[in-house]
Amino acid sequence: MVEHEADAGLGYFERWLGVATEVVRPYLGEPVPDEAPGGLIVLGGEASAWDDEGYPWLAATRRLLRRAVESGVPTLGVCLGAQLMTLACGGEVNRGEHGLEVGAVPVRPCRPPRATRCWATWGPRRWRCSTTAT
């Protein structure tokens, strides 16, 4: 699991998962691993998904996400993590035209999904899937 800041940790997910998790905290100087063979969760944070200058580990996180998706590793991106995964898989992330988005919102899949969910969101960004993402 990649945690981008101390105030945006695993929270309830830790108990819900029921498995031991290895937490990587690149904001403390810990390196982002090259792979996550058992599964990958990339959490949120205040960074913009494209702000490599302010958050120098984001490029490595996008590479890890891309490899995980390409390898079929179970992968979950939460907030910033979802934005990073979108960029890593060839999609786009930009500022939403309606400002800050907070709360539960319907999710419109780019193509027929494997599973449909309603996720909570908080932030001024939106993202569009790549045509090659699965």
List keywords for this structure.
3 helices; two-stranded parallel ribbon; alpha+beta; about 130 residues
Write the layout of secondary structure elements.
Layout: H1 12-17, E1 40-42, H2 58-71, E2 75-77, H3 80-88, E3 92-95, E4 101-105, E5 119-123, E6 125-128
Parallel strand pairs: 1-2
Antiparallel strand pairs: 3-6, 4-5
Helix pairs in contact: 2-3
Determine the number of helices (DSSP H or I, runs of at least 4 residues): 3
Helical content (DSSP H or I, runs of 4+): 10-25%
- Specify the structural class: alpha+beta
pLDDT below 50 for ≥5 consecutive residues: which ranges?
Answer: 115-122
Largest sheet: 2 strands, parallel
Find the count of extended strands (DSSP E, 2+ residues).
6
Radius of gyration, whole Å: 14 Å
The share of residues in extended strands comes to 15-25%
Could you give the order of the helices and strands?
A: HEHEHEEEE
Describe the global form: globular
Q: Tell me the strand order in the biggest sheet.
A: 1-2
User: Averaging pLDDT over every residue, what do you get?
Assistant: 80
Question: How far apart are the termini?
Answer: 21 Å
